[in-house]
Automatic annotation (TrEMBL):
Family, as annotated: Belongs to the truncated hemoglobin family. Group II subfamily.
InterPro entries: GlbO/GLB3-like, Globin-like_sf, Globin/Proto, Hemoglobin_trunc
Keywords tagged on the record: Heme, Iron, Metal-binding, Transport
SUPFAM superfamilies per the UniProt record, alphabetical: Globin-like
Protein name: Hemoglobin
Pfam family, one: Bac_globin
A molecular function GO annotation: oxygen carrier activity
PANTHER family: TWO-ON-TWO HEMOGLOBIN-3
Length: 137
């Protein structure tokens, strides 16, 4: 077991903790709610629970509390996205809304860059089909 990183030292704390991640994800889901490609991918009528999962995951990733894993288990994000068709179009739509959300936070440059580069890399990593006609597996 490694010692937990003190919260003061984490990116999580530096950007303002949970309220910042809530604002990020709420803004992102405002975009998803209006997106004709992404909105139908979310099985639940209420996007609130999905927003909560993404918020808790991002908080944990950046050094905040481990509530995500305590409630959902190991993230295994590629596996959890396997039921959905994530092609280049879905990735780009996702990133468009996330970009607007990141920009809305008006973080200091280095924090904004670190957050954005991570999200962009993660979105490319989660693409699971290059075929625009292939159904989800
Ligand atoms: C590339 C485009 C992406 C698409 C189209 C997409 C789509 C989805 C969908 C439809 C869900 C199910 C909704 C739910 O019930 O939670 C989901 C869940 C989730 N996504 Fe994504 N996603 C994408 C990228 C990402 C990225 C980049 C991350 C992380 C940085 C991420 C993190 C998550 C998490 C944490 C969950 C909840 C997993 C769980 O605990 O069940 N997604 N995503």
């Amino acid at each position: 077991m490694t010692a937990p990183v003190p919260e003061e030292a984490s990116f999580f704390a530096a950007v303002g903790g949970e309220p910042t991640f809530r604002r990020l994800v709420d803004k992102f889901y405002e975009g998803v709610a209006r997106d004709p490609l992404l909105r139908p991918m979310y099985p639940e009528e209420d996007l609130g629970p999905a927003a909560d999962r993404l918020t808790l995951f991002l908080m944990q990733y950046w050094g905040g509390p481990n509530t995500y894993s305590a409630t959902r288990g190991h993230p295994r994000l590629r596996m959890r996205h396997a039921p959905f068709r994530v092609g280049p179009a879905e990735r780009d739509a996702w990133l468009t809304h996330m970009r607007a959300a990141v920009d809305s936070l008006a973080l200091p440059g280095p924090h904004r860059t670190a957050l954005w580069e991570y999200l962009e890399r993660a979105a490319y990593f989660l693409v699971n089909t290059m075929d625009p006609t292939e159904p989800a597996h």
